[in-house]
Design goal:
The structure holds two protein chains of two kinds. Chain A is α/β, with parallel strands linked by helices. The longest helix of chain A has 18 residues. Chain A is globular, with a radius of gyration of 19 Å. Chain B is mostly helical. Chain B is 78% helix and 1% strand. The two termini of chain B are 14 Å apart. Classes of the chains: A alpha/beta, B mainly alpha.
Chain lengths: 284, 339
């Protein structure tokens, strides 16, 4: 069976004043349709670089990404991205933020009325219909991220890319959004690639967890299949031995085999959990 | 609800001192409101009174060749007489047109085929007229500057190469005084702006162009910085939904940089107003600058008081212009887009 998304031997070098910095080395991954993949690893391990290459925002130095038999060469709505800091346009309302994408993506395919109901449908999907006419500055962090997800879903992407979508939120809000995401996922069965720092989030949401080694020249260390039945219930899983075994596996990988480089050498300036590969490419 | 809206409007419009008045009208924490009111109104009021007293006391000590330096009351009197002169001039104008109408009507009555002449009134420009000339000139220069500075600033913000290339030129031209520009502008306008029946007077064009040259820089620099510092992810959203380059600029770069652009415009208009007075003095554009210069040359016993009245007027108009820009700036800022 040919994979839906095929990352083959991705390598990435960033030019720096001190010569090229190799962020990624030979990353290969095959993703099936409808699969939920999490990328987990320490800051600076190049997770975001992988995501940006799939999105087409970066071009891999070597290797490439094939989506449904076609090579990815530029960004496009079939690979919608949910950015970490929501990236809503502050001068547009929640509705308009989704509308701008819908208008562009379905130009000539949907009538005006269809577009309107499609925007409303996606607001409904993330339970934000009541805030359609609010501006981002009037919304909480969790609400903004819901709109960001709705905007990405409204593009009807083949692959939904999420760059630490819940990283900036408090624990309770994060749990709510994870539940919403699972609910949406059971309905739409999207193919998703999500970056996360959060072990629980990875185990709860994913079909497979891709654990990355530390950079420079980061690559895939291990892949963990999560064979927990869906729908998954956060509370029930908390005392589930299988769930806790998966959790322990990921923790072991992160803390024993590949402990955080920043904690080993405090002098390095890449100790910035928010932005991973950017900071390391600059620090190098 | 009405109270909240009123307070919101007053805050955006910069009338913060009115807010306690509104609250007081609703009898909301009257003591606290009274305290705020006394802070916001009494303190500036006391400072103004003190300033006027020092001015009055100091002025009487200075004896100039044009008589004693005028104090606040003399300046107020001069301001009143300037307004009275304006009224008088307007009355003369109305009377002139009435006479002309009656005369022409009579002429046509006697001979319906007679050609009648309609003449325009050519009285002196009054102080009020000069204020409007100045405003017209400064806005012409300011709009011209904005039309140049905003597109160039956007281009510089989008292209780091272009920004690096033109940055030294901007840095060198920026600090040049309007008085240095003026002779050059005058010569160029005289050479280039030649028409038999020009729409605008040369002095007007010269003054406006000088204002343009001096006030375009803050807008240009702020626009460039604003566009260059847009959140990369916002632009990436535009790339993901495949907006064309031009649409990305129009729908993402410009709205995102708009608060910075408006900050620049506000500084530009402030500089433009300052520069204008100097430009009008030298270019003899019939605005407030020329008024000050003419009064200085005139040298009557009234002159100093009239110049000081003009100074107060110039300051007050500058303040109003800044307040207008600040209000617009607050309205378009994303942070209180709720307003």
């Amino acid at each position: 069976m040919t994979p839906y998304v095929d990352l083959s031997q991705l390598s990435m070098e960033f030019p720096t004043p001190k010569g090229p910095f190799k962020a990624l080395d030979q990353v290969s991954l095959k993703i099936q349709k409808g699969e939920f993949i999490s990328l987990i690893g320490h800051s600076g391990c190049g997770k975001s670089t992988v995501l940006n290459i799939i999105a087409g925002l970066y071009q891999a130095t070597e290797g490439g990404v094939i989506l449904e038999g076609k090579e990815v060469t530029e960004p496009g709505p079939e690979r919608a991205v949910v950015f970490q800091n929501h990236s809503l346009f502050p001068w547009l309302t929640a509705y308009e933020n989704i509308e701008i994408a819908v208008k562009q993506v379905f130009k000539g395919q949907k009538s005006k009325a269809e577009m309107r109901s499609w925007v409303e449908h996606n607001l409904e999907l993330v339970h934000m219909s009541h805030a359609a006419n609010k501006y981002p500055s009037e919304l909480s962090g969790g609400m903004k991220q819901r709109i960001g997800i709705a905007r990405a879903l409204a593009m009807e992407p083949k692959v939904l890319l999420m760059d630490e979508p819940f990283g900036a939120l408090d624990a309770l809000t994060r749990a709510h959004l994870q539940d919403s995401l699972m609910e949406i996922q059971s309905e739409l069965n999207n193919t998703v690639v999500m970056i996360t720092h959060d072990v629980d989030e990875a185990v709860l949401l994913s079909d497979r967890i891709v654990m990355m080694t530390n950079g420079p020249a980061a690559t895939i260390g291990e892949i963990l299949e999560i064979e927990l039945p869906r729908p998954r219930e956060r509370l029930a899983l908390a005392s589930d031995s299988q769930y806790n075994a998966y959790r322990a596996d990921v923790l072991r990988f992160l803390h024993q085999k590949h402990s955080n480089p920043a904690s080993r050498s405090r002098s390095s300036s890449s100790d910035n959990p928010g932005k991973d590969d950017d900071s390391i490419s600059r620090a190098a | 609800m009405f109270k909240q809206k009123t307070i919101g409007f007053l805050e955006v419009a910069g009338f913060r001192w009115m807010v306690p008045v509104v609250r007081l009208a609703y009898w909301e924490e009257p003591i606290e409101q009274a305290r705020q009111l006394s802070n916001l109104i009494l303190l500036p009021f006391a400072a103004i009174v003190l300033f006027l007293m020092l001015w009055a006391a100091g002025a009487s000590q200075v004896d100039t060749s044009l008589g004693e330096l005028p104090g606040p009351s003399a300046v107020l009197a001069a301001g009143k007489s300037l307004y009275a002169e304006h009224k008088e001039e307007r009355a003369k104008e109305v009377a002139f047109y009435q006479r002309q109408e009656v005369r022409n009507a009579k002429k046509l009555e006697r001979n319906p085929d007679a050609t009648v002449k309609w003449r325009n009134y050519t009285g002196n420009a009054t102080f009020i007229d000069q204020i409007f000339t100045s405003l017209k000139t400064v806005f012409t220069g300011f709009i011209l500057a904005s039309v140049i500075a905003i597109p160039v600033g956007i281009a510089c913000g989008l292209s780091p190469q272009l920004n690096t290339a033109v940055s030294p030129i901007i840095q060198i031209l920026k600090p040049v005084s309007p008085l240095a520009w003026l002779p050059i502008v005058t010569m160029i306008v005289s050479a280039v702006y030649v028409a038999d029946d020009p729409l605008f007077a040369k002095s007007f064009v010269t003054s406006a162009v000088t204002v343009t040259l001096c006030c375009m820089w803050p807008t240009l620099i702020n626009t460039a910085v604003g566009v260059a510092n847009i959140d990369k992810d916002l632009l990436n959203v535009g790339r993901v939904i495949r907006l064309g380059w031009f649409t990305r600029v129009r729908k993402i770069a410009i709205p995102a940089a708009l608060p910075m652009i408006f900050t620049g415009l506000r500084i530009s208009l402030g500089i433009g107003w300052m520069v204008l007075i100097a430009a009008e003095m030298l270019a003899q554009n019939p605005g407030l600058g020329k008024f000050v210069w003419d009064e200085f040359q005139n040298g009557s016993s009234q002159s100093l008081a009239r110049i000081m009245a003009a100074v107060v007027t110039i300051g007050f108009i500058g303040f109003v212009l800044d307040w207008l820009m600040l209000t617009v700036q607050k309205l378009i800022s994303h942070d209180d887009s709720a307003a």
